[in-house]
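Exam review. A common question shows you a sequence with its structure tokens and asks you to describe the fold in words. Practice with the pair below. Do the first one on your own.
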Amino acid sequence: MEKSERIYRLVKILYPGIKIKRWILLGTFGVATLSAGLTYLLRRALLATRSDDQNILPDLLPWHFDGILLLFFGTTLILWSIFGLYQTISPLLAQNASLENIGDILYRRRALKRGPKIVAIGGGTGLSVLLSGLKNHTDNLTAIIGVTDDGGSSGRLRRDLGVLPPGDFRNCIVAMSDESSLLQELFQYRFPEGSELKGHSFGNLFITAMSEISNGFENGISESSKVLAVRGSIAPATVNLIQLSATLESGEHIVGESEIRSKASTVSKIYIDPPDAQAYDPVIKSILGADTIILGPGSLYTSVLPNLLVHGIAEALCNTNATKIYICNVATEIGETGGYDLSKHVEALQKHTFSEVVDYVIANDNITEIGDRFAGESVKNIPLSDDHIVYVYSDIVDIDNPVRHDSGKLSQVIMELVEKDKRTKSVR
């Protein structure tokens, strides 16, 4: 790295809003005050016998008290500035950031703290993919996660301990984490066969234990998020235990999220029990205060829509001034959305909520053959005839896993849309 570039990167720590300059200035003033106090004491001690000695301070206190007061005040300012610098820089030093990179990282973090307020609603793998990309663009990120999962480790903990299913929360905590990959791997570690804990992940057990000692699942999520230094916040759609059920196109009625996923027939309509389950209060506040709200990506009937059926959430979406975006899946799911094109996904959203539930729909335009390795097929881009909705098409598919979104591509498209929409609103 050239010397000029290194100096430029170091100078970034003096940019406004970085919260470094204030501590440097405070420390400098503290050193000056300490030096003045020390000089004053030495001067008075050396010249104490001279009758022509001129005191620069009023004789309110004995001269040695004046000097000690200056020493104490200067030392306090220096310690205060050191503590402030430590609070600002220590997280970066823990990440082994070099001195040259500290300015860049702090400057970037300032930009992230000023990023748009984005609320993402959903669950499953799709939501965690979205969040892992968005965390690089804003710290003002809120994930609202469904609580209808009743399969696997989450289902067992739900049945045995009566807790909300922690699996999707664990994935989102890891996705939004700023911590090392080792800690993330620990949270995702799943105990092997041959033990009482087989099938459970460490993160699920950790969240469950934290919920018990924190007096509530929502508090457990908050404390777990602190452990992994999560950017933004994570909240359940409701703190009530609810169960998902569905009526299939075949007319059959199915109870339980895992049962719905296992059926080959396409879903017609879903329900939650109890139907009057109330939304978690912070969730409503986040929706009403957001700049942008994102629905999906994720399983339409078992990850996205269950959240919108919780009492209060659809109403908040209707009343918010935020821009609402739906991320359509790149592939259909056998047993849920078999044969669905883009328009059918949007129709399902409207059928379960209201006609203007979204302003924009983002869909993949890199249609590829999925192949035998994956279930389902690529979603065809046949839009719904609705003047209210603007469709945005882009290459957002993960090349290595063509049934998933690419987090980097998707977050870039979203941020470009957010900025464009912001400029449009400012002109109005």
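Now try the second one, then compare your answer with the model answer below.
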Amino acid sequence: MEDLFYHKKLLRQEIKKRKALQSKEEYFSASANILSKIELLPEYQKAEIILAYWSIEGEVYTHDFIRTWSQRKHLLLPSVNGDTMLIKKYENDNHLISGDLYGIPEPDGPEFTEYELIDFVIVPGVAFDRNNNRMGRGKAYYDKFLRNLTAYKCGICFDFQLVDEVPSDENDISMDIVITD
């Protein structure tokens, strides 16, 4: 177990170095390319309720995607409460508040609890591998939440975040697909 944490730490450091080399232009262009690929997926096209995420620095940029698609589909975003990830409906930017724990904007409305209705999940990650395994930031918010979710899970990342193998164990949830630029 100690080796697993050590290898994850090293991979997180390596990805952080690679992100630092990415220009703003490359960042926005690659993000747009990734999200346009999602829009072409049959699973996304038929989905009505989508769980996305409000991107922070270094993650695939999702703000414009969320704004656009919230006009046509039901968009949900995570909200962190202690060690738990809650889900809330995105209405528009006016209903975003600064999250308590990390300051990540999150919806201010009531919790969405009908998880079985979620059709498609867009999942960020520090790194993914060719077997669709995911490595997050280390708090396991997504792993805990996705464990019992039947929705189609789509990991998204930049090309340099896709590696041959992500250190993982039985607690890590794999994706149905990983999309890169």
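Model answer, second protein: The CA atoms of residues 116 and 149 lie 7 Å apart. The chain has one domain: 2-179. Full marks require stating both points clearly.
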